[in-house]
Design a protein that fits this description.
This protein has 413 residues and is of the alpha+beta class. It contains 10 helices and 21 strands. It is globular. It starts with a strand and ends with a strand.
Length: 413
């Protein structure tokens, strides 16, 4: 894949920065405000102003693979619901089992992102973000701005319409009346999450209100806004398992009480609890283990084509990626090739059960940055919204795709 403009021209830092800041300003005006991320005591460039030119055939293949992967996940969810004892393998707190195994009203997840590696050796899904996927604002807003800057068509143009369709489906599945309010929440300090919530809320067709997560009042009988309005429907861009740790200022376990209200159906959340069930990376080892038992021939073919062998224990693997089952943003991941550690993160999630996935090398991709051309590893995110492939999300970074891997827009040819 090639950037849309030439990397052979001499690099002029001041000129580049001036042009980049102009693009950043346009994207921020439309709701994408984190083109720069402050981390490790410095500003880091998160948005590249390069535009990748992706072969249409690859974009179609990712779309087909996303549909196939989502079908396999849906089937896996149905199989777990038939044999509920399997939940003990997923590394999720026992406290949440009853909640996660409650019969859902619709899809296991309405907002999902599958992450793919595309190389000369094919296309592989390496994980699924089924609970609280982000990258939606980049794929909708920043992508549109960058395509306009480069005078190219935006292949993600249908994303907003698919979000609207998802809301209409959720309104039906959850039986949200026209007089009901859907509250939207996330950690208020987190710009990316807040703008993502704002973007989704703007596309919701009925009554909606934002309430910061920190201000939600968890009472003995229900959940309320600070103004005393009862919350019955809540979109939360906050991992469900994190609620277990939430305490009030006086040390009360309000997160546990929140989950009890969910179990007692005093509250309904989007994504549904089943989205956390399917977020566990142990799902990937389960899919591989049960591929000859649970799935149709077509699903088996999709698993062998698009999924990597993944196991609950290391066995005799020499090249693998070790992942915590409920890790996020690349935390706790270790990449090993031929017995040598290529990269690892030991700061997070080390206490969790791990899965071991066959190592599949990521392709190199060069993009423009403040510091000149940068060559990193390319990862393709694919949003599946209400079961429909809804646009791609490209990032370039290290062997572990973390918080600071750079977003880069794309067009097709």
């Amino acid at each position: 894949m090639l950037p849309h403009h030439s990397l052979t021209e001499p690099f002029e830092p001041n000129q580049y920065l001036k042009r980049w800041q102009e693009v950043e300003r346009k994207a921020a005006a439309k709701g994408f405000t984190w083109a720069t991320l402050y981390e490790n005591y410095e500003d880091n460039q998160y948005m590249s102003d390069s535009l990748l030119v992706v072969p249409s055939s690859l974009a179609r293949e990712v779309e087909n693979a996303s549909r196939a992967a989502n079908d396999v996940f849906q089937k896996t969810y149905e199989q777990i619901m038939k044999d509920r004892s399997i939940i003990h393998r997923l590394g999720i707190s026992v406290f949440m089992w009853d909640l996660l195994l409650a019969e859902g009203k619709g899809a296991f997840s309405y907002f999902t992102r599958y992450d793919f590696i595309a190389s000369a050796n094919g296309l592989k899904v390496i994980e699924a973000n089924t609970d609280t996927p982000v990258g939606i604002v980049e794929s909708a807003v920043a992508q549109e701005v960058l395509c306009q800057e480069h005078g190219q068509l935006n292949p993600n143009a249908q994303l907003a319409a698919n979000v609207k369709n998802a809301w209409n489906q959720i309104i039906r599945d959850y039986r949200i009346g026209s007089a009901d309010t859907l509250y939207f929440t996330c950690a208020d300090w987190h710009d990316e999450d807040k703008q993502t919530v704002q973007y989704l809320m703007n596309l919701y067709p009925q009554q909606a209100k934002y309430v910061p997560l920190e201000e939600i009042v968890v009472g003995k009988d229900d959940i309320q806004t600070p103004e005393g309005e009862k919350i019955e429907f809540l979109y939360r861009l906050y991992p469900l398992e994190y609620f277990l740790e939430e305490k009030s200022g006086t040390g009360e376990k309000i997160g546990e009480q929140f989950l009890v209200h969910l179990m007692n159906e005093k509250l309904k959340v989007i994504n549904p609890p089943s989205a956390l069930l399917m977020q566990s990376k142990a799902i990937l080892s389960l899919i591989w283990e049960k591929k000859d038992e649970w799935y149709t021939r077509m699903e088996r073919d999709a698993i062998e084509k698009y999924f990597l062998p993944t196991y609950d224990s290391l066995g005799n693997m020499n090249s693998y990626v070790k992942k915590p089952v409920l890790g996020r943003e690349g935390g706790g991941v270790q990449v090993v090739s031929n017995g040598a550690v290529i990269e690892e993160d030991v700061d997070y999630y080390q206490e969790q059960p791990m899965v071991y996935q066959e190592y599949f090398p990521m392709p190199d991709q060069t993009i423009d940055t403040w510091d000149g051309p940068y060559t990193g590893k390319l990862l393709i995110g694919s949003h599946v919204i209400n079961g429909e492939p809804s646009g791609l999300f490209f990032r370039v970074g290290g062997p572990i795709t973390g918080n600071l891997s750079m977003f880069v827009a794309y067009t097709t040819r």
